[in-house]
Write a structure and sequence with these properties.
With 148 residues, the protein is α+β, with helices and mostly antiparallel strands. It has 7 helices and 4 strands. The protein has a 4-stranded antiparallel sheet with strand order 2-3-1-4. It is globular. The chain binds adenosine-3',5'-cyclic-monophosphate. Adenosine-3',5'-cyclic-monophosphate is lined by residues 54, 59, 63, 93, 111-112, 114, 117.
């Protein structure tokens, strides 16, 4: 199956709930490897630029304000069909519509505070990864199935 990389953001609400470990457990259990990670607090400008595609949407200001309100965990996830797989593990954008057992169903309060972000296509994944990470910050390894 096609190995892909995708960008994941554990958002300020999920960081504040102290569920980073549980979220990453789910990624790893489903076959995604964390190949880059950075904990930071986005500036307003970074959040505006990252979500620039939504700048004309009514929720843009609230989104920028929320995403720069506290620390986030930025990660690159790698694995088979990583873009679609990550979106499946996250669940629908609106937690009210997210399937049972998904991250958003379990940890998100609302569409505005929805715990995680994940790239929605391979092209966007490449752009989003390069927005936050240099190529040198992304590592390579394979799962050691003898130890797991
Ligand atoms: P995310 O996957 O990070 O991408 C953009 C974010 O905007 C989305 O998650 C939601 O948290 C937020 N948002 C708020 N309202 C909407 C909406 N009506 N449609 C899509 N995204 C929304």
């Amino acid at each position: 199956m096609q190995q892909e990389k995708t960008l994941s953001i554990i958002k300020p609400d999920a960081v504040a709930k102290c569920v980073i470990g549980e979220i990453n457990r789910r990624f790893e259990q489903e076959g995604l490897r964390i190949v880059a990670a950075k904990m930071t607090r986005l500036t307003k400008k970074q959040a505006e630029d990252f979500y620039g595609i939504h700048k004309d949407r009514p929720f843009f200001n609230a989104l920028v304000s929320f995403m720069s309100s506290g620390p986030v965990m930025l990660q690159v996830l790698e694995g088979p069909n990583a873009v679609a797989l990550n979106r499946q593990i996250m669940g629908a954008t609106n937690p009210k519509e997210a399937a049972i057992g998904t991250i958003r169903a379990d940890f998100a309060e609302s569409i505005d505070h929805n715990a995680v972000h994940g790239s929605d296509s391979l092209d966007n994944a490449k752009q989003e990864i390069s927005f936050f990470f240099t190529p040198e910050e992304v590592v390579t390894y394979v799962k050691n199935t003898e130890l797991a």
